[in-house]
Write a structure and sequence with these properties.
The structure is a single chain. The protein is globular. By secondary structure, the chain is an all-alpha fold. It has a domain of about 80 residues: Alpha-Beta Plaits (2-Layer Sandwich), CATH 3.30.70. It has a two-stranded antiparallel ribbon. The protein contains 20 helices and two strands. Keywords: 4Fe-4S, Electron transport, Iron, Iron-sulfur, Membrane, Metal-binding, Transmembrane, Transmembrane helix, Transport.
């Protein structure tokens, strides 16, 4: 009889961990009850109970899972688990996330009478909080911002326990938590409280493409007065001056891994799925083709809109506006939201950053050709364990570079430092060194690039 190979059994989950996970499950059930309950009082009770159980349960489980064990990156049988190895739980999670984004974007528009369709019962429990922060009732976008920020903070707490041995990871996690809470949630809300234009100071063109579109620039200058002028100035300077300068010194990590809300969600809520990122050459080819096409599209659309504005619509008619609406639907909604987050449990946590983000493409060009940033490797110390490649959420097969001692200078690298953190031998090191010697072993890298793009 031919012997069959079977996977080793998963380690037993302790009773305390099971209790905390039961609390999280109870919170999700309470959220479902809040969504279904028509009684305002019970609905609010269910909603806030859900928030408390999910948050407290996740943080307590994180301490039990990581805080009580020796520090260090452990794979924890990720590929064997249904939730993190593309099993049934992962697929269900992906379907739920995707469904939420579909409902949010297309089936929850308000009717100016407090009706938000399928999300009404989840939005109204936030009315008091929204009145306190923004001086107006909650809407679907306030619900989304609240859930988004809560996910970054709670899962950021998990990341702090998990990577507490790495000073770089701790500070980086605290940074994305700070920018999400302050710059992406509280400050935009307070601006609305004082009847000023809603503005996100940590998002710039071409990621937040509308900030340099003529209609939005006109509205900011008209309605925001001195503050509006500063907002336009801030957006332009950050996009065209500060971004090249900061990327020259620090690579794209200063933004993608320390500031950006998309990257913040990927690094916290998406951390359990980072190993699912496709490392194949085929994926790399598609990444290059798609992300730079998106960057080219947003540059062309921005130029079209300014031509349209300058000529009063006489030269191009409605071509620019039509292109802007199409981009907002296909890229701004479907790609960045439905696919970018909904597909975390199936394709990894940086699908949007790899394949669709125009800001990542812009920063990547600067990083690859003009930056001092690189990840140096010491091939003599590499034991080919594969930890570095496994944790790379950007689809880079780091191990191949490490084995031959070649520096990693990739446009897609976001400098999260997880490869260095996961390496048991200290083979990888993030550097902002002088450009001299940056392309050591560049012949090997250039040859690989030619093969991939051919």
């Amino acid at each position: 009889m031919t012997p069959t190979l079977t996977s080793p059994p998963l380690p037993a989950t302790s009773p305390a961990e099971k209790l905390m996970l039961a609390g999280v499950a109870g919170g999700l059930l309470a959220l479902l009850l809040a969504w279904a309950d028509a009684d305002p009082g019970r609905r609010n009770t269910w909603f806030w109970l859900a928030i408390g159980l999910v948050s407290a349960g996740t943080l307590a489980w994180s301490w039990l899972k990581f805080g009580r064990h020796p520090a260090g990156v452990q794979q924890n049988n990720l590929w064997l688990r249904s939730s993190t190895g593309r099993g049934a739980v992962g697929w269900i999670t992906g379907l739920v996330l995707t469904g939420f984004y579909v409902v949010l974007y297309w089936f929850s528009n308000g009717d100016n009478q407090g009706n938000f369709g399928l999300l009404s019962n989840l939005i109204h429990p936030l009315d008091s909080f929204s009145q306190w922060l923004r001086a107006k009732p909650a809407d679907q976008w306030f619900l989304y911002g609240t859930f988004y920020t809560l996910a970054v903070l709670v899962m950021g707490g998990r990341a702090l326990w998990k990577y507490r041995h790495s000073r770089y990871q701790v500070i980086r996690t605290l940074s994305v938590m700070f920018f999400q809470l302050g710059f992406s949630f509280l400050i935009p809300g307070l601006l609305q409280f004082f009847q000023k234009p809603e503005f996100y100071f940590n998002y710039f063109w071409p990621l937040h493409y509308q900030y340099l579109w003529p209609n939005d620039v006109h509205d900011l200058l008209k309605n925001g007065q001195a503050l509006g002028v500063f907002m336009v100035f801030w957006g332009a300077v950050m996009s065209f001056v500060a971004t090249p300068v900061l990327t020259y010194f620090y690579g794209k990590r200063w933004y993608c891994s320390w500031v950006c809300g998309c990257g913040g969600l990927a690094e916290t809520a998406g951390d359990p799925y980072r190993q699912l990122s496709d490392k194949s050459r085929t994926a790399w080819r598609w990444e290059v083709r798609i992300v730079y096409t998106v960057l080219g599209l947003i540059i062309a659309i921005t130029a079209l809109l300014w031509v349209h504005f300058a000529t009063g619509g006489a030269l191009l008619g409605e071509v620019g506006n039509a292109a802007a609406k199409w981009y907002g639907f296909a890229i701004g909604s479907v790609f960045s939201g439905v696919i970018g987050v909904g597909f975390y449990p199936i394709m990894g946590s940086r699908v949007w950053c790899r394949f669709g983000c125009p800001m990542a493409a812009y920063l990547g060009l600067l990083q690859k050709h003009f930056s001092r940033f690189r990840i140096s490797t010491n091939g003599a110390q590499c034991i080919s364990c594969g930890n570095c490649s496994n944790v790379c959420e950007m689809g880079i097969d780091v191990q191949q570079y490490a084995q031959r001692g070649a520096p990693i200078i990739r446009a897609s690298c976001v400098g999260c430092g997880m490869c260095s953190t996961a390496c048991p031998r200290g083979v990888l090191n993030l550097e902002n060194g002088p450009r001299e010697g940056r392309y050591q072993a560049s012949q090997l890298i250039h040859a690989d690039s030619l093969r991939i793009l051919s």
